[in-house]
Amino acid sequence: MDTLDFDLFVIGAGSGGVRAARISAGYGARVAVAEERYVGGTCVNVGCVPKKLFVHAAHYAEDFHDAAGFGWALGAAAFDWPRLRENKDREIARLNGIYRNLLDSKGVTLIEGRARVLDAHTVAVGQRRYRARHILIATGAWPFVPDFPGREHVITSNEAFHLERLPRRVVVVGGGYIAVEFAGILNGLGVETELLYRGPLFLRHFDRDLRETLAEEMPKKGVTLRFDTTVQAVEKRSDGSLELHLGDGSRLQTDLVLYATGRRPLSQDLGLEACGVELREDGSIVVDDYYQSAVPSIHAIGDVIGGPELTPLATAQGMALASTLFLGDKRSVSLENLPTAIFSQPAVGTVGLSEEQARARYPAVLVYRTRFRPLKHTLSGNPEQTFMKLVVDGESDRVLGVHMVGPEAGEIVQGMAVALQAGATKRVFDATLGIHPTSAEEFVTLREPVR
Ligand code: NDP
Hints:
With 451 residues, the protein is α/β, with parallel strands linked by helices. The protein is built from 13 helices and 21 strands. NADPH dihydro-nicotinamide-adenine-dinucleotide phosphate is lined by residues 146, 174-179, 181, 197-199, 202, 204, 260-263, 308-310, 340-343.
């Protein structure tokens, strides 16, 4: 091969790309990352991080209310959206700087601009061409909005992070992570919120008990849920408000429509197909277990390869690829026991198999469930219930799934994920002492299974 500029050329400075770049550089590789938009990618700029800050902001409304039962008397609360948005922007700018420094400190070259793959070892950014031993596509995904009349009047999560002002009313369309999270955020910030989902019950891929519990809890907080509801058109009216034409012929007035109907891989116009990289119909890049595409020197990780679109998965894939390419230690990331949280209100935390998945794979499944009012709410008067569930293989006694709806579900289930990863049995859970009084202790005191 002729002279190479880099050992690894990464396209996309998001969670996966930055991690792959940093770790590869740490292994001695000469690395460049090209980024056309924002350093840190979706997670840092228009995803996980600002979303979680907004979730905290939204939760105060309920916290102020709950405080009264504990003797606190607060004046009328007032919420200042521009202040939250600007403080959030400042924090994101700080994180952008940290990401740049992370790359810089490892000697990774950051190239700002749109990259195109010219052949198996050549990438162009603007007028410049770079030769690399390996190319990594880590370009992520982008919100998808289906086609319908008036599509131009709706926004996606990308725009929701930068709204000039909060609307009085919002309709959120979709039944996945982003729809339930943003419905909770906007409702908490005082916006009249309706969530429309096309199927009979949202969060289709999750454990049914979790879905049903969340569907009971969200309306208690003020979110209107409308299932089996489709949108045929969105019309802008002369007063600036929006009218949705629904599948059943009815109409719905609102001020903002937020579509959260999934995301599509960003693999277009990168020159991939011309080089021989195979793409699926949805645009995701086909890779093998070691993130290698149909062209041996071109690799891909993260949202652009399809599968669960989760930051910790993309970063783990980035580390595995760095090890495969530059340590000679071939590694792949297992999707088993993948923990995940939905930062809805209340939150959902889950790891391992849902009851439905477990029953399809194992002949004797035991299920342990509990639903209770957390101690805090005995005084707050808040009607929120917490739900917890263990799914166990009755033959081996191994815990297959841990599921929760309630405060700090993500924090609690992260710990449970370690137990599942270690192959913990129900007996191990039973032998573990609780921490009293907590909600989490319920996971080690569940004793009555149902088959
Ligand atoms: P999801 O894939 O989670 O959900 C998409 C939703 O949109 C589903 O309810 C789906 O319905 C519905 N939908 C799809 N197409 C249409 C259509 N044409 N018309 C109407 N409804 C439609 O996508 P999100 O956009 O919510 O989020 C994208 C991904 O980002 C998530 O899957 C997740 O991996 C990641 N994410 C993770 C978060 C976290 O870790 N907390 C937070 C936010 C996002 P149906 O089920 O019927 O197909």
